[in-house]
Every structure is written in structure tokens, then in C-alpha cells.
């Protein structure tokens, strides 16, 4: 995946507001519903969501900027301190020497593979103690030995976690996504329709192995912000811009939904803030499908209009009224 700053088209110094604004701008342009004839639209939209998942989260953004995670949110491996690794180089002892580690009847063994093998591995026994949960016994500077009974009780398999970001449309209709797990595997995850933001999907046996058991993978599903709709449980909410003359005279206007645009009859004399309910145009719920609540927002012309201003002055002088009389 490309650098998330490059995907969103923002500078590394951009603030949270600029990042959110850039995401919304690109989301309107790249959304699959607006590019149904483009087979690559879904991939570009998924890349955009992935970039916003990193930069839209303050902690993840800082981790990315520090180089702790990559553009997909995966931890970067920097090696262990004391291994003698150098930037751009490989691990191993000083002077390009190396040491090998084997497990046999005598436990964990370390042996030098070249001259100076003792350099660069100070403290490695502490790493092994942390990995195997036992108290290591040093039998010499160049060799560490762990008796089998020092390793403690066998541990069961461990669960691993991963995160996948889907669009609101995918949350409504369901689908499947390829997910990279920390184990290195890539698996296909089935996304059920109506999944809530933050819900987890458990994949049995896809975690880390242990003696006699294998852990599971827990995939947390995030729903990317939509450029038009706000989610409210199984319901959706939408702000509908309306021209002044449409509000005064009434009109039939097109309203976007997740299933395609529909006509809405706006009655004459509609005030800004009035909400209309489109039944069944929300998300799948535990029972019936949710609704879409459309709230009217009256928008004046972008530029001043002398005739409109003159009309309003005459209206004000001849037919004044107080819309705030109930506020006290």
C-alpha cells in the first residue's frame, strides 16, 4: 500500500481537520457507487479507507510517523537490541560473524559460527527467558543452556488480532474481504450484512500454535465514514440541501440511498430542519431493516442576489413574523 499521506494528498504537517476534509473529498469522487463502470474503483476506495484508518487515528498516525507501523498498520520489525545489527545490514556478531542456536537433548545451545562470536549478543539470555518463561542457566560466556524443565508448563495456542475496514455499503449488504494476519497468512473473511462498527469476527484455528492447541484470529471490523450518511444504529441520517424556492413552493427532489436514489416529495412551506423518514432505507437490524432520516437544510444562492434581497426587504416590512417567539 502507498504512503497514506500520498493517498490522501496531504502534507505530513496537516492537522486532523485537513485530513478528514481530504478523506471526504476523495471519498465522494472514488466511492464505488459513483464509479459503477470502473472495476478498479473498489480497490482505490479501499486504499483510501486504509489510509484514513492510519491518519485519522491520532495514535496510529504517531506510530506511523515514528516508523513503528507500516502503511497497512502492521508493526515493523526492528530487531533486538544487542544483536549487533546495523542500519541496512544483517544481524550477527561484530565483524560480520554469526552464531547459531539449536535445540537438542541438552536444551537450547548457542555456538559461534566465526571469530569473535561472543560480540554483539550480550543479554540474549534475557530474551530467551522472556520467550520461554523459564530461568535460564549460564554455563559459559559463549553458550547458554536451558534444561527442559526450566521452560515451564506448555502454553496453549495464542489468539492473534487484526483489523479490516469496510465501506458503509459493505456493512449494509455484506461481502468478503482478504485480511493479512500477524501470522503471515492471508485469509478471506466473510462479512455478514448489518455488522456493527467495532464488532469482531472469530476465525477458529487461525492463530499461533502451541503444544496441542492452535489459537484463533480475532478480526475487528471498522466501518469507514461515509461522505453523505451518518450511522445511528440500524438507521441512517442524511442532510438534504434545499433551495429557498423549493422550500417555499414545494418540489420533488432526488434523495440518495444505499440502494440508489429515490424521489422525495417536499411539501410547500417546508422549514429548514424538518425531517422526513424513508422507511426501510437504512441498514439490516436484529428485526426489521432500519430507516433513512432526511433532514432539510435550506441553502441560499452562493452569490448575493439584488432581486432576492429587495423581495426580502418588502416581505420584512409588509409581513413580519417572529420564528423565535417560543424561545422566551
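^ Assign residues to that structure.
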Amino acid at each position: 500500500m502507498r504512503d497514506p499521506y500520498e493517498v490522501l494528498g496531504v502534507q505530513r504537517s496537516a492537522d486532523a481537520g485537513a485530513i478528514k476534509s481530504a478523506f471526504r473529498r476523495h471519498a465522494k469522487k472514488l466511492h464505488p457507487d459513483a464509479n459503477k463502470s470502473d472495476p478498479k474503483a473498489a480497490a482505490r476506495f479501499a486504499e483510501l479507507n486504509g489510509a484514513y484508518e492510519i491518519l485519522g487515528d491520532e495514535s496510529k498516525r504517531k506510530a506511523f510517523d515514528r516508523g513503528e507501523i507500516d502503511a497497512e498498520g502492521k508493526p515493523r520489525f526492528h530487531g533486538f537490541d544487542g544483536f549487533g545489527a546495523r542500519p541496512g545490514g544483517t544481524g550477527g556478531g561484530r565483524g560480520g560473524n554469526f552464531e547459531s542456536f539449536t535445540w537438542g537433548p541438552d536444551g537450547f545451545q548457542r555456538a559461534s559460527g566465526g571469530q569473535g562470536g561472543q560480540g554483539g549478543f550480550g543479554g540474549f539470555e534475557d530474551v530467551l527467558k522472556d520467550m520461554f518463561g523459564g530461568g535460564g542457566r549460564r554455563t559459559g560466556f559463549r553458550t547458554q543452556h536451558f534444561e527442559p524443565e526450566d521452560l515451564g508448563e506448555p502454553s496453549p495456542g495464542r489468539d492473534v488480532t487484526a483489523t479490516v475496514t469496510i465501506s458503509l455499503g459493505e456493512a449494509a449488504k455484506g461481502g468478503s474481504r482478504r485480511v493479512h494476519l500477524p501470522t503471515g497468512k492471508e485469509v478471506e473473511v466473510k462479512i455478514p450484512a448489518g455488522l456493527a462498527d467495532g464488532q469482531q469476527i472469530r476465525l477458529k484455528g487461525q492463530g499461533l500454535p502451541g503444544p496441542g492447541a492452535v489459537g484463533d484470529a480475532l478480526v475487528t471490523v471498522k466501518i469507514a465514514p461515509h461522505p453523505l450518511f451518518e450511522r445511528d444504529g440500524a438507521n441512517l441520517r442524511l442532510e438534504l440541501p434545499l433551495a429557498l424556492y423549493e422550500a417555499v413552493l414545494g418540489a420533488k427532489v432526488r434523495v440518495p440511498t444505499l440502494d440508489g436514489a429515490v424521489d422525495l416529495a417536499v411539501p410547500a412551506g417546508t422549514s429548514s430542519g424538518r425531517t422526513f423518514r424513508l422507511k426501510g432505507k437504512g441498514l439490516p437490524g436484529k428485526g426489521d431493516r432500519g430507516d433513512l432520516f432526511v433532514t432539510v437544510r435550506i441553502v441560499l444562492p452562493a452569490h448575493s442576489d439584488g432581486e432576492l434581497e429587495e423581495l426580502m426587504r418588502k416581505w420584512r416590512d409588509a409581513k413580519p413574523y417572529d420564528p423565535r417567539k417560543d424561545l422566551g
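The mean pLDDT is 77.
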